[in-house]
Structure formats: C-alpha cells, structure tokens
Amino acid sequence: MKKFDAVVLCCGAKNARGLNGLEAKGDNGIWFAVDFLKSTTKALLNGPFDEKSVEELEKNGGFISAKGKHVVIVGGGDTGNDCIGTCVRHGAASVTALEMMPQPPKERKASNPWPQWPKVLKTDYGHEEAAYVYGSDPRIFETTVKEGHYDKAGHLKEIVISKVAFKDGKLELVKGSEQTLPCELLLIAAGFVGCEKYVPDNFGVSLSNRNTVLTEADHFATSVKGVFTAGDMHRGQSLVVWGVAEGRACAREVDEYLMGYSNL
Ligand SMILES: Cc1cc2nc3c(=O)[nH]c(=O)nc-3n(C[C@H](O)[C@H](O)[C@H](O)COP(=O)(O)OP(=O)(O)OC[C@H]3O[C@@H](n4cnc5c(N)ncnc54)[C@H](O)[C@@H]3O)c2cc1C
C-alpha cells in the first residue's frame, strides 16, 4: 500500500468445502474438483494432449488422470457435472456421482409456479455423456460417502457410501444402507466456503459471515482505505457475468476514489 494508491482484491472464492475424514491430499487419490479440472485445462492449453504426453505429464505430477479408474464424485452441482464430463472424456472405468439432496421432480410442482426458479431435475452435458458411455445416469441421490479404504501405499481403493435422511432438520446417515464401491479417484465437488483467507488477512480487511470480503451493499470499498474488492471474492462463488459486471462497477468506484469523480 506504500507503492499503490488503490488495490482491488479479486482472487476468486476457491476455498472448497471438504469432507470429514477424507482429506484431499492428492497422492491418496482424493482431490478437490477444481484442482482436478484445472490440471486438465492446463494440460490442454499447454499441449500436446496426446496419450504419450499426458502419461508423461501424469508421471511428473502435472496431470490428474481418471483413465481406467473407478471415479466417485461427491456433489451434484455444476462443478460436479464438469467433473463427470471430464472423467468420461479421460476414459474412466466407471463414474458415479453422489448427491445428498433428494432427486428433484422432473416437472414443476404446483408449489413452485412461474416466475419462481424451477426446482426440477437438471440433466447437463456430463450426465448425458456418462449415460451414453456407461448406459445409465451416473447420479445417486440422498447419498454420501461415509469412509474410504486404502491400500498399503495409502492410496484409495474403495469407499463406503450411505443413504442420508433429514431428521429434526439435520442430515443423518441411514443405518444399514451402506454399500461398498471400488474407487481409485474421489473428487470432492461439495461447494465452496468463500475466499482463501491469506490475502484478506494480509490486507487486514474484514470478512463477511460467508467468508467473502466485506463491503457495504452495492459498493466495493473494503474496511481498509484504498482497498477494494470485486467478483467471487466479494460475492462468493458466482457467474462470469457477475465477475464482469462487478469488475466494471468496481473500476468506476476506484476512479471516483482517486479522481473525486468518474466518467466510466
Ligand atoms: C468448475 C467451475 C465451473 C464453472 N462454470 C461456470 C460457467 O459455466 N459459467 C459461469 O458463468 N460461471 C462458471 N463458474 C463460475 C466462474 O468461474 C466464476 O464466477 C468467475 O470465474 C469469477 O471470476 P473472478 O475473476 O471473481 O474469480 P476467478 O475467475 O476465480 O479469478 C481469480 C484469479 O485470481 C488468481 N489468484 C488467486 N489468488 C491470487 C494471489 N494471491 N495472487 C495473484 N493471483 C491470485 C487466481 O489464480 C485466478 O486466476 C464456474 C466455476 C467453477 C469452479
């Protein structure tokens, strides 16, 4: 801050929600979804993406492959769907996706009329590709992963899954519903819990109770003078259009702060 008159923090919101007892260490076969997806995108962009180059990259730790593996993805959102599609394209032996919520209805319920957001089953490209390749929709609803079993080298070889049910507003495992699945690659796509803390901590800015950088509503100035924020780091995991809109509005606020007015 000695060198700059204004700083905008826009580092995204990649603090992923973990799973109890299943640490995403990578070398144990458990990864956070974004790390897995990023490794594929990076390998594609850097190219070449032929079998030999990718195998070489994987040996050097620069690529996470799902090829020939039984994959389980935990989390049924958009990120989970991207993982399904990517694993299918890698040539996974099988792909199973666990979602703890009940399967939504195929059509709107009378209690969910237009113009409310339609709470219906969404079938995305990943689900369609998996159904085409493996013969059925990969999703299992009202289910979560209970524990992992590892080989002697500490690598995941199978997982125990369990049905879940809401009891007194709390999600509980259903006793006796456990099932064991082969699994050499477990991808955690269970949502995000705000931004990584080290940047806000270094700048001394306040955080919201959602772990995003705090500002007044519809503004971008943080609790520290001259420090602004925009995008996912400000509003939590969102959409590209919001990132663009916030970037523009934030630039205007910074301009006003520096100049006393803005034509942006
Ligand atoms: C798997 C997945 C799929 C998605 N699909 C869609 C989609 O289809 N459509 C859509 O609209 N949105 C999608 N989103 C959401 C979208 O990606 C985000 O809303 C958007 O990218 C937010 O933009 P941002 O600039 O705020 O943050 P980001 O795009 O996350 O950019 C933050 C950047 O800051 C960098 N950074 C972090 N820390 C530091 C640091 N200390 N120093 C320097 N740089 C740093 C990061 O490397 C990153 O490049 C998806 C998100 C995920 C995770």
Q: Class of the largest domain, according to the CATH hierarchy?
A: Alpha Beta
The CATH topology of the largest domain is given as FAD/NAD(P)-binding domain
Indicate the structural class: alpha/beta
| Distinct compounds present | flavin-adenine dinucleotide
The CATH homologous superfamily of the largest domain is called FAD/NAD(P)-binding domain
The biggest beta sheet reads: 5 strands, parallel
Q: What is the molecular shape?
A: globular
Cα Rg: 22 Å
CATH architecture of the largest domain: 3-Layer(bba) Sandwich
| Structural domain tally | 2
Low-confidence stretches: none
Overall average pLDDT: 96
Number of strands: 11
- Give me the number of helical elements: 7
Percent of residues in beta strands:
15-25%
User: What's the SSE pattern?
Assistant: EEHHEHEHEEEEEEHEHH
In which range does the helix fraction lie? 25-40%
Annotation keywords:
alpha/beta, binds flavin-adenine dinucleotide, FAD/NAD(P)-binding domain, five-stranded parallel beta sheet, four-stranded antiparallel beta sheet, globular
